[in-house]
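FORM 7B - TANDEM STRUCTURE REPORT

SECTION 1: FIRST PROTEIN
SEQUENCE AND TOKENS:
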Amino acid sequence: MRRAAVLTALAAAVALGSGCAAPRPDAARTTAPAPPSRPASTATGATGAPAPARTPAGSLLVADFGSDTVTFVDPERGAFDSVEVGTAPYGLVVGRDGRAWVATAEGVAVVDTGTRERLARVPYVSQGIGKPEHGEYRGGGMGIALSPDGRQVYVGVNRPGGNGALEVVDTRTLEVTGTAEVGRRPFDVDVSRDGREVYATNHDSFDVTVVTAGSLRTRGIEVAPYGTEGGLGSWLKPHYAVVRDFDGKLLFPFEGERLVVLDPRTGTSRVERMTADTHQHGATLTDDGTLLVVGTGPIDPSRDEGPSLTVRSPGGQEKVIPLDGPHEDVTASRDGRTAYVTGGFTRDGYWNGITVVDLDSGTTRRLAAGDRPLGIALL
């Protein structure tokens, strides 16, 4: 596709958002809300009522960016419970112990996913976050990841109008033990397989910050296969990344056209062809190395394709499955045969649910799930 006309039109725009347009009020909610949440301060069974059954394995957990909750979802029947965590939760990650770590506008919430209770919320220490609020331009936590040993949580913190921070939370003491400066709006955070490096994908500065886990030393690597023309007004920025198991390289999908394969040790990269021709956001890898990438829809409707899920084999062959409406993030079932794609989206057009995708047949079905769900994890 030719991008020159798009970049010229956007160069004059001053956009601070994920997709790259001028700031706007939060969009209206379009479908049924999540089930009523239980107050975070009420312990299970504290009133004498029977304690709810523990959360079944294989359930899904989504971050409700449109409210202050996370929602638990049965992948066959839909939402069945929600828990208050803090304002506008964005990303989340679940450890082997069943605790979920949720990046909200106020701090990192800790949730026991078995009993469905909020255990704590760790406030950020970075200055310049602003008051807790909703909307895609809010300050506070965005991308979040766990160290391989489960002892640290790394959260990318957006400081509106400036560079972000990576905050390190000790999972035993529930305290922030260190910070590192990163780029603008850290959409995603990933950790190397050996735990020695942390990668903050910085949407608005066209780069990834490589953070040494022990010393918190940083170095930036530009990730801009279309260049940086248009600055904050550009659509062509990095959003989410994944770390490839066998060689530790980072994969950044762009526009359903280009996959940047970056070696974080050397800073060198190459570009592989993609085929979906759609603006891309969330990504994940299945256990066999299949890459799943969410296509949110077109930049230019006259040239680009609609929303989709790209299924890319380790060898680079792609199958593109159409989706009904914009989506944001994705996770996969343990057997790698089913994808769960959140409808929250960080722009207009989001909806309150999950699309369940059979990766073999390409068939899809929708589940009601939460209030503008963004981050998602399989329990």
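SECTION 2: SECOND PROTEIN
SEQUENCE AND TOKENS:
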Amino acid sequence: MSSTEPRRTALDALHRSLGATMTDFAGWDMPLRYGSERDEHNAVRTRAGLFDLSHMGEITVTGPQATQLLDHALVGNIGTVKPGRARYTMICREDGGILDDLIVYRLEDTGAGSPHYMVVANASNAQVVLDALVERSAGFDAEVRDDRDAYALLAVQGPESPGILQSLTDADLDGLKYYAGLPGTVAGVPALIARTGYTGEDGFELFVKPEHAVGLWQALTGAGEGAGLVPCGLSCRDTLRLEAGMPLYGNELSTSLTPFDAGFGRVVKFEKEGDFVGRAALAEAAARAERTPPRALVGLVAEGRRVPRAGYAVVAGGEVIGEVTSGAPSPTLGRPIAMAYVDVAHAAPGTEGVGVDVRGSHEPYEVVALPFYKRQK
């Protein structure tokens, strides 16, 4: 296979048999949609959807000093993550720019008290994160291993997902907290069962060996038939996460922003022991944000029908006051929505006179607090 051809997940033939529209995403051939993306989106909001997320980048970190390595390499306090729990965090450059946002799972220790972590990176940044962790591991008694080929990743998301999954496993899903993971067996297949999600709904991620992916997909499809489960592509995953106000790397997050610029300063833990990559630059960014608040990430809801896209200018009083980072029609709200970084003076919900320059026409938008959608617990 030539290096220019996209990689294919273990479920590739199955997606094609279901009539999926495929797209190149971060070097992977992935399902964009199977039918109507609006129907897929609504299924996740009201029933359940099944996703192939095998393009995500799994990196295993083990060894006596695995915790110290991750505390040095990442901005979060990994030392406080207990076995069986997960943490949302970021990896930054020395200048504080965000290389990626990550989920770090602490798995059961590997014996002799040696910690065992799985770092899950975005597909587009997996190699960058792997290279950074390997480079930053110098001097630590820890091993960084590329496990991208060791896992397929399926996600079942939506209000019906606990019942669907529980019918296939004897794992205690009720006891599995948000941002936690436990080893179990699903449909006879060994899996790491996690509960994080990127849709704004309850749901689960199942990390399994690639050779088990097709059988597990089929078992989940069978178990979800009566509950309205449908296969879902990347397109509705994007509108779901947008409604839930969740950032996407390359849109809301980039190397040109620090976590403080992006409104995610809370993930940076200066109180942890030892130095960490980017500490000095991030301390400056934190102080700068205190003195002069950076542009704020806000929600925008269209008053008309025209859809704002990433890169469109946000305007007020004839001046450019910000930029759209993500935009799409919202199936739940029935109107186009966007996330945008705007000057703080225009960031308060209800601020009037704000518009988006849609191909030369200034379309009116309402400024709202994020997220656009929050599920009823």
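SECTION 3: OBSERVATIONS ON SECOND PROTEIN
DSSP finds eight helices and 20 strands in the chain.
Residues 279-291 form the longest helix (13 residues).

SECTION 4: SIGNATURE
Preparer initials: ____
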